[in-house]
Batch of 2 targets.
Target 1
Amino acid sequence: RKEVEQDPGPFNVPEGATVAFNCTYSNSASQSFFWYRQDCRKEPKLLMSVYSSGNEDGRFTAQLNRASQYISLLIRDSKLSDSATYLCVVNEHYGQNFVFGPGTRLSVLP
Amino acid sequence: NAGVTQTPKFRVLKTGQSMTLLCAQDMNHEYMYWYRQDPGMGLRLIHYSVGEGTTAKGEVPDGYNVSRLKKQNFLLGLESAAPSQTSVYFCASLGQGANTGELFFGEGSRLTVL
């Protein structure tokens, strides 16, 4: 079983749609959680950290359920520019290993 | 601001050849990492360093060696390249005490081993 698993995708949605990505992790001792975004043939970049109480950044909302070891990302009012691969990332010990999920590709269509 | 710079960006090797990938960061970060990315598998950690003069193995260290002689540089070496090492390699850095968990990545190095 992979340490971090994500929806296989791809997700093809029309502009303006709401889309949700799911992620599960296997190590219950994991301490910090993130969503990264990776554009085609580019490096990953931090989209947002995920906090236990849930957090929002504009059209993006992240949720964490430690009991279920589950992380989610909700994108509202999708834009063409949101097309990318979204990577769920879990850190077990600060500064040591950041474990990446395989990613879920999103295509927002006009 | 250069951030994290990787060289070379592209390289083609024959099986058995050796090479070194260089990662340089100008943000005075303590932690540095080498990942490889293969289709459908996400990024996998090869080696990492928590400071100058230190290195540690990640998930997939076999066939690679690393060195961190200077804080700003992290080198990844392939002593005898194999086709299974064809991949995109990403270097990343993280600042100590930076609790955002923001990894800064280089643009990647595409390696093909024939």
Target 2
Amino acid sequence: RKEVEQDPGPFNVPEGATVAFNCTYSNSASQSFFWYRQDCRKEPKLLMSVYSSGNEDGRFTAQLNRASQYISLLIRDSKLSDSATYLCVVSQGAQKLVFGQGTRLTINP
Amino acid sequence: NAGVTQTPKFQVLKTGQSMTLQCAQDMNHEYMSWYRQDPGMGLRLIHYSVGAGITDQGEVPNGYNVSRSTTEDFPLRLLSAAPSQTSVYFCASSFARDRGYTFGSGTRLTVV
């Protein structure tokens, strides 16, 4: 079983749609949680940290359920510029960031 | 403020050659890491450092060495390149372990 699992997609949705990504992690001792986005042939960039209370940044909302070991990302009113691969990332203490394989999203005009 | 700078951006090596991938950050971050990214495998941790003079192995350390003589620099050395080391390599740094990492733009390495 992979430590961090994501639906690889691809997700193809029309502009303006709401998109939801899910992620599960296997290590209950995981401490910190993040969503990154990665554009084609570019480096990953931090989108947002994820907190147990849930957090929102503009059109993006992240949720964490520690009991279910489940992380989600919701994108509202999607834009063409949201097209990218979204990476679920879990920190297991020290320096170990574990990356999911990513979910590819394409927003269609 | 340049962030995390990686050089070179592209490199072709012959099997058995050695080389050093350079990584420098100007944000005074204590935490630095090296990852490789392969299709279908996601990003995997090679080596990491929690401060100058302190390094440790990640998930896939074999065939690579690192050192951290200064806070700013964290070079990755390939000892004897193999085709299995063909990959995209990313260096990353962070202010604290529970903060997000800033990534460099990557080095695309091909070993023939």
